[in-house]
Amino acid sequence: MIELKIMGDDVLKRQSSLVPKVDKKVRDLIEAMFETMYEGKGLGLAAPQIGELRRLFICQIPDDQPRIFVNPEIVQTSEDQVLLEEGCLSIPGVYAEVLRPRQVTVQAWNEHGKPFTINADGLLSRVIQHELDHLNGVLFVDRLNEKKRQRILKTYTKKVSA
């Protein structure tokens, strides 16, 4: 298991770089990320959460296969939006409802460097958007209004210092 970066770590606020090619080193990183995600009982994990500023994330929602997204890009979103509770391995114990598009179309590479396109809705769409935010230095709490964000951050700070 790789150590997770926790909110407050500068790496979580930075933009990730494109992965030039998918080689053994990247596949080893993906394998280690899955171990870390499963250990933390998460649904997804982005490379910045383990200190790697690369455009790469993984996910596995219940009753679905493990998924790998290298250099992902959302190419289309639905106008229909939905409010759903989110949490994050990098902000343990914090949950809040976030408004996001119900559906997304994403283009990315798989673990062999082959391009693919996926249309996702429901929980998979939510996880994809959440993890892709990490690649742009955005945490789910950044998507909350200021009052809600401050209340959640205050609660989180109390938990961390306790």
Provide a compact summary of the structure.
The protein has 162 residues and is an alpha+beta fold. 28% of the residues lie in helices and 27% in strands.
Q: Strand share of the residues?
A: 25-35%
Shape: globular
Low-confidence stretches: none
Tally of domains: 1
Total number of strands: 7
Gyration radius, in Å: 15 Å
Work out the helicity level.
Answer: 25-40%
- What is the CATH C-level name? Alpha Beta
Fourth CATH level, the homologous superfamily: Peptide deformylase
- CATH topology name, in short, is Peptide Deformylase
Q: Please, what is the average pLDDT? A: 96
Oligomer: single chain
**Major beta sheet, strand line-up:** 1-2-3-6-7
Query: Architecture, according to CATH?
Result: Alpha-Beta Complex
The biggest beta sheet is recorded as:
5 strands, antiparallel
Structural class: alpha+beta
Order of helices and strands: HEEEEEEEHH
What does this structure look like?
By secondary structure, the chain is an alpha+beta fold. The protein has one domain (10-161): Peptide deformylase (Peptide Deformylase, Alpha-Beta Complex). It contains three helices and seven strands, in the order αβββββββαα. A five-stranded antiparallel β-sheet has the order 1-2-3-6-7, sandwiched between helices. Strands 4-5 form a two-stranded antiparallel sheet. A hairpin with a 7-residue loop joins strand 2 and strand 3. The model has no long low-confidence stretch (mean pLDDT 96).
